[in-house]
Design goal:
Largest sheet: none
Strand content: under 5%
Helix content: over 70%
Shape: flat
Oligomer: single chain
Order of helices and strands: HHHHHH
Distance between the termini: 15 Å
Number of helices: 6
Number of strands: 0
Length: about 160
């Protein structure tokens, strides 16, 4: 049971992280991550030339990123359906998870490729600020997962009192 719970939280964290990158999940400030990224770009105080260069990088990868994140969204929906099936078909769940993992892996690689190009347009100080923003977002995701895990564990303990 604990293994299933751990796997479920891992999948939820992966899905929320990848969907967050796609701009589908709000962050702690009520902003979708694309808005948070725009806020970060503003904080970087880019020169006009840097703004143009970063915009060109983002535009050049727009179709590739959209396709990768659409594959994640589709795979996540397939996984959701497989895990919600009353048949409890473990083989289908495993297959759906592998599909989600592969789609997520590709999306992260695409994002990393884009961000490497963006970082190449920044000064060392701006690169540091960008990494700090990324670390802050990762910490918020970890906190949400831990909060959800704690609530779930508390619910289980509350409702198993007296059960054998």
């Amino acid at each position: 049971m604990k293994r299933i719970l751990s796997l479920t939280f891992l999948v939820l964290a992966l899905c929320s992280g990848v969907l967050a990158l796609a701009g589908q999940v709000p962050d702690g400030d009520g902003l979708i991550p694309r808005e948070a990224f725009l806020r970060t770009l503003v904080r970087l105080d880019l020169t006009e030339a840097q703004k143009r260069d970063v915009a060109v990088v983002l535009k050049s990868h727009k179709a590739e990123a959209r396709a990768a994140f659409d594959r994640v969204r589709t795979a996540a929906e397939h996984f959701r359906k497989a895990t919600a099936s009353p048949a409890a078909d473990e083989a289908a769940v495993r297959q759906a998870f592998r599909g989600l993992a592969a789609a997520g892996e590709e999306a992260v690689v695409v994002k990393n490729r884009i961000m490497a190009e963006v970082r190449g347009k920044l000064t060392p100080e701006q690169q540091k600020l960008l990494l700090e923003s990324r670390d802050l977002i990762a910490e918020k995701v970890r906190e949400r997962v831990e909060t959800a895990r704690g609530i779930f564990e508390e619910w289980i303990e509350t409702h198993t009192v007296g059960a054998s």
